[in-house]
Amino acid sequence: xxxxxxxxxxxxxxxxxxxxxxxxxxxxxxxxxxxxxxxxxxxxxxxxxxxxxxxxxxxxxxxxxxxxxxxxxxxxxxxxxxxxxxxxxxxxxxxxxxxxxxxxxxxxxxxxxxxxxxxxxxxxxxxxxxxxxxxxxxxxxxxxxxxxxxxxxxxxxxxxxxxxxxxxxxxxxxxxxxxxxxxxxxxxxxxxxxxxxxxxxxxxxxxxxxxxxxxxxxxxxxxxxxxxxxxxxxxxxx
Length: 238
Prior knowledge:
By secondary structure, the protein is mainly alpha-helical. Helix content is 56%, strand content 8%. The protein has helices at residues 41-50, 56-62, 70-85, 88-108, 119-134, 142-149, 153-164, 168-186, 194-200, 206-217, 221-226, and strands spanning 5-11, 15-21, 29-32. A hairpin with a 7-residue loop joins strand 2 and strand 3. Helix 3 packs antiparallel against helix 4. The longest helix is centred in the middle third of the chain and has 21 residues, at 88-108. The protein is flat.
């Protein structure tokens, strides 16, 4: 392209990426850290139907490019990375999270929305998330959540089972693990202590914490910390 050459090459940190060069060492560098992923259309359509988006196929096929904000993009990237690193029950959970985010971005044209499955379920999920995030070092029990947001244990269980196919206990723990992941990922490794961050989110048994963390993200907390980078936007992935 003009006097510039664009080509694909492997970066030791980011993997296969797009590079540009003007023929000099100084003018040869990675253009962008590009994330790629593919999903089956039938999976997107199934989630879209569950989210009450009846004309989703038409919107999907009529638009070539969907624009979104940097915050929304980072949110989606994290969902994709969590899915790629997860296994078992955790993988199914992260796959649905990723698909929901993709569907919402397509449907809203870049404006992130919460699930439209049911207004009451939306309220229950949002209230649960807010309560868990507001009590980082003292995670609320399921009974405390039910009392605080005014729902029965059965209603809480049904909401998370129907929307995310997981239990409320799994979801609330995943929120806290995700916050630990975010802190490790975006805090300079020289300033972060894994135990301090884990304790701040209510994890006190470090052996169990590390084992569960690895099951959820496919790597140890120390691995995440080694690859940490500054996060100028302070993005909350939940």
